[in-house]
Amino acid sequence: MTKKVTITDLAKRANVSVTTVSQILNGKDDRFSEKTVKRVHQLQKEMGYAPDFNAQSLIRRSGHTIGVLVPNINNPFFSRFLRGIESVAMDNGYIPLIFGSNNNQKLESYYLFESIRRAADGMIIASAISDVSYIDNILNQNGIPYLLTDQAPITEGDKVDVNNYHGGEMLADYLIKKGHRDVTVVTDKQPTLNLHQRLVGFLDMFKRHQMAIPNERIIETDLTKLGGYHAAKSALATKPTAIFALNDEIAIGLYRGIHEAGLRIPDDISVVGYDDIDLAEYVTPTLTTIHQPAFEMGESAAKLILARIQDQKRAFQEVSLPIELIERNSVRDIRS
Amino acid sequence: MTKKVTITDLAKRANVSVTTVSQILNGKDDRFSEKTVKRVHQLQKEMGYAPDFNAQSLIRRSGHTIGVLVPNINNPFFSRFLRGIESVAMDNGYIPLIFGSNNNQKLESYYLFESIRRAADGMIIASAISDVSYIDNILNQNGIPYLLTDQAPITEGDKVDVNNYHGGEMLADYLIKKGHRDVTVVTDKQPTLNLHQRLVGFLDMFKRHQMAIPNERIIETDLTKLGGYHAAKSALATKPTAIFALNDEIAIGLYRGIHEAGLRIPDDISVVGYDDIDLAEYVTPTLTTIHQPAFEMGESAAKLILARIQDQKRAFQEVSLPIELIERNSVRDIRS
């Protein structure tokens, strides 16, 4: 039970009427003396008066809030993505309600309902583990627009597109040109659409070069550093000259496992990742990877959802963002 | 303008009265047939009906929300800390409203006000950059209890204590025993209280051994990987045998700078960090550091603030959590 500073408290201290304070704080200040206007604004800051949001949002049925669901705020890709969302949200007077589901379906469901209860105007959902149809059902019935970034929507919708298929192709092409044929892939147990496309692009490129990668060279694990670390043994058992980690977190886990096995990167084995998280430049050797514009992806997602909130009937938009192969020091050229 | 599923919609579909639905959802279901109770609960899930929070919170003046302000959600220490808060909050039907201030004072102030507007019942503030007296003023006037984790409160308050002074001492003692005398420290430009204590504990231990560390061996930078990377040159210029990085993020940045300078850790130079973020086990060599129980710190902070929300008059509590030196491979024994 908090007792907030009210507009009446402020008016009393300023020695003016509540109406005066209200008008001044709403920018209708031309009827008042400069001194009064200044005093009211100053007192607002000093006293920490914040207009009651719930009263406003009850009328408007808008919490000026965007619910954001990510699998793991510990992954630097998502912290950058969240920063992009935050920056656009703030410019528009919204705040993001950030939830990390930690791959826990119960938690995810709890957060979905809490977002609705707290009058979220829209949602951005990255890598949900629940069925898309479940999410669609819940949000649609509540008239809350949403945007999925890593999965295909049930129906047509706004989209932030980065060409994952092409990203996979680029990495495969790069490894092939460096002479790698015996390549092993470490991927997620339950890949979302974006990861799946990444994988298929990679595999297709090898196929096109008549070097199809057999199933036993595809290792499944969790999409984390620990997952990569645990997968290192099985990956090394396939005797590859190079490993493609479906994201940088896995790659960094592989680094650890490879070091512990007494092997050196890239002398004994090459590694490529995906995402270009900041750590990719801090590991030894620095990691060759695909740069994803995580911050811009967050910005675009926030812009699209805000536009959709303003006008639910507008035509669907697709924003396409470029990716780039960043060549660092984790791949050896093995053509002799 | 969202159009949420209402209790009337649900009652219509269930073919019962609004009162019936309300009573069933509030657990007063003994008057109704098992079939009706089951049907109402099932429809609630199917239709995604979530009771309107703002109506409730307007009456109770409680948003069942804890505002949480951290400097940087990109630092794994804070993501673990946030997970601890989240887990306790959820068990108590609260949600954390998470804000990363990114060392931007304007953003921090915006978030403070938004937390008040959104009826936060309490706040947990880690490493704020604003004046504590400013925060105290704003929150106190709004009757919102808060807990500072990295700074000294203005007045007495609840506390989550980890003994930073002792942590600094332990690292110094460890380095001294390994024969290090020429030690350089890389610290934050504007250290918060916890960092300051860490530093003083470290310096005091060297003084006690008649090996006081001169000022020119104390390098200031930002508390990030990039900060550590940028500080590497100046740190190496002081010709140390070991460097104490005030947190692991700085240590990882130093690793990069040290590698680029063509030196090897620990053969040419030793490094110790502080926090024991998960990465400390993934860098090469693995990093010797002080383990901070980040998850438990988050849990304790959440428990204390929830208890304070329930009873603003209860006696102040202090929870003391243990730290531990984790010896890995980044320090060389240089006693000959």
TrEMBL record, chains A, B:
Pfam families given in the database record: LacI (PF00356), Peripla_BP_3 (PF13377)
Keyword Flavoprotein found: no
Keywords: DNA-binding, Repressor, Transcription, Transcription regulation
Domain (HTH lacI-type): residue spans on this chain: 5-60
Matching InterPro entries: Cro/C1-type_HTH, HTH_LacI, LacI/GalR-like_sensor, Lambda_DNA-bd_dom_sf, Peripla_BP_I
Domain annotation HTH cro/C1-type: ranges: 3-28
Matches recorded under PROSITE patterns: HTH_CROC1 (PS50943), HTH_LACI_1 (PS00356), HTH_LACI_2 (PS50932)
SMART domains: HTH_LACI
GO MF: DNA-binding transcription factor activity; transcription cis-regulatory region binding
NCBIfam families in UniProt: lactose_RbsR
Official protein name in the record: Ribose operon repressor
Organism: Lentilactobacillus farraginis DSM 18382 = JCM 14108
